[in-house]
Amino acid sequence: MPYEPAHPTVPAPLRYRDAILYPPAVPEPRMLPAEIPPGVQYVTLPDGTRTLAYTTQPEPAAARPVPTWAKTTALLAPTVGGGIAAASAGLAYAAPGLIALTEALWAAVALIAAGAVVAVARPRRGADRPATHITQHVTATGLFGRANGTINHR
Questions:
Q1: In which element (H, E) is residue 149 found?
Q2: Closest residue by Cα to residue 7 from 38, 41, 50
């Protein structure tokens, strides 16, 4: 079967009073010449269709240098990841020692608490020493008067 180009079918013209109205040749909307990017032109394909196409190779965008912050981040990412990996390996290796250390700290806390209980429960002075009594006499005249007093040790 020979190749037949696919042309859009054009409907028969319409009549309005004495005039003949023809439909537009291209039913799809057209671009304004100002909207067509550089390097693009109208071309006719082998099947007779007119379309827009690049007639030359577009120029590649100019190579821009890599920003400094991107280089720094790219170099820092493996370092930070390696540090985290080393820290987790160290914690895994030191876990038994850390468990023993926490048990020793709890034992130290219990020893300090026991010492505090003994220190509070034990009297400070011996039973053979008599207690010192202090008496104080304060006198003041008026609401805002100056206070005078004496202290007696017995």
A1: strand 147-153
A2: 50
CA distance 137 to 148: 8
pTM of the predicted model, to two decimals? Answer: 0.29
Q: At residue 9, what is the residue type?
A: T
Q: Are residues 52 and 41 in contact, defined by beta-carbon separation less than 8 angstroms?
A: yes
What is the DSSP annotation of 32-91? PGGGSPTTEEEEE-TTS-EEEEESSPPPPPPPPPPPHHHHHHHHHHHHHHHHHHHHHHHH
Instruction: Determine how many CB atoms are found less than 10 A away from the CB of residue 42.
Output: 13
Span 22-75, pLDDT tens digits = 655 655 566 777 888 888 888 888 887 888 888 777 677 788 899 999 999 999
